[in-house]
């Protein structure tokens, strides 16, 4: 199943302490999504959108590698620019961990040196937050990453997509099916109008992690309100 589930797994790993993640420099960035034109504009693919925006700004060239789309670029670090790897897994959301693990193993990077862009049901559309470690929250892409890496100690840039109307809330009428339909549906017209600014904020949050560390990035970006001009969407 490509979409995330409505509820988390009760047996998921406990969250990593932020300081355990923050001590390592970021060497690789992954955007989560599903391959193919049919998924390109959907809410579940906002992780792909964010890493594509970052790559375009840095004139990074994509190529096929690690069962995904791979690129390298330089980003500002704490002291000068640092070389980082970029990846969009092409295995569908629920198998994202396989290509990510291959890439990290190839370069000898640890899970704590990874930053992941992903969509998040629990944040309203337009909200962007940095998170260090934690569980998968029912997100199948994160679930696969935790399983394949054997660790949840990676940094996440959470990009809010909100939830559908009351009938689609987890545990309510529709449940998992309504959530699946929601995340695999395209953004509404109002959302599309401000989506570029939301992606700008996601990229800025990732760059802040590289340059200033997780704690500073969290303090700077997590308190920001949802993107101005947005409003709750209905399916």
Structure description:
This protein has 235 residues and is an alpha/beta fold. It has a single domain, classed as Rossmann fold, CATH 3.40.50. It is built from 7 helices and 7 strands; from the N terminus they run αβαβββαββαβααα. The protein has a 7-stranded mixed beta sheet with strand order 2-3-4-1-5-7-6, with helices on both faces. A hairpin with a 4-residue loop joins β3 (68-76) and β4 (81-89). α2 packs across α6, α3 (97-107) packs across α4 (140-149) and α6 (189-212) packs antiparallel against α7 (214-221). The model is unreliable at 5-20 and 166-174 (pLDDT under 50).
Query: What is the CATH topology?
Result: Rossmann fold
Strand ordering within the main sheet: 2-3-4-1-5-7-6
Whole-number count of domains = 1
Q: Give the DSSP E fraction (strand runs of 2 or more residues).
A: 15-25%
Say which CATH homologous superfamily is assigned.
Peptidyl-tRNA hydrolase
What's the multimeric state?
single chain
Can you give me a brief rundown of this structure?
The chain has 235 residues and is α/β, with parallel strands linked by helices. It has seven helices and seven strands; from the N terminus they run H-E-H-E-E-E-H-E-E-H-E-H-H-H. The longest helix is centred in the last third of the chain and has 24 residues.
Topology:
Elements lengths: L17 H5 L5 E4 L14 H12 L5 E3 L2 E9 L4 E9 L7 H11 L6 E7 L7 E5 L7 H10 L5 E6 L14 H9 L5 H24 L1 H8 L14
Parallel strand pairs: 1-4, 1-5, 5-7
Antiparallel strand pairs: 2-3, 3-4, 6-7
């Amino acid at each position: 199943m490509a979409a995330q589930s409505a509820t988390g797994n009760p047996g998921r790993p406990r969250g990593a302490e932020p300081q355990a993640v923050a001590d390592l420099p970021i060497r690789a960035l992954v955007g989560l999504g599903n391959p193919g034109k049919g998924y390109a504009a959907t809410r579940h693919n906002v992780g792909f959108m964010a890493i594509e925006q970052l790559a375009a700004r840095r004139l990074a060239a994509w190529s096929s590698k690690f069962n995904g789309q791979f690129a390298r670029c330089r980003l500002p670090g704490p002291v000068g620019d640092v070389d980082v790897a970029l990846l969009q897994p092409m295995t569908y959301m629920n198998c994202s961990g396989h290509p990510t693990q291959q890439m990290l193993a190839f370069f000898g990077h640890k899970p704590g040196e990874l930053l992941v862009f992903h969509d998040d049901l629990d944040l309203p559309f337009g909200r962007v937050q940095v998170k260090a470690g934690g569980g998968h929250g029912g997100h199948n892409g994160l679930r696969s990453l935790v399983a394949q890496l054997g660790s949840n100690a990676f940094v996440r840039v959470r990009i809010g997509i909100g939830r559908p109307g009351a009938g689609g809330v987890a545990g309510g009428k529709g449940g998992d099916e309504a959530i699946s339909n929601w995340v695999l549906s395209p953004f509404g017209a109002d959302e599309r109008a401000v989506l570029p600014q939301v992606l700008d904020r996601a990229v800025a949050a990732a760059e802040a992690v590289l340059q200033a560390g997780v704690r500073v990035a969290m303090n700077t970006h997590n308190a920001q309100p949802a993107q101005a001009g947005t409003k709750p969407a209905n399916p």
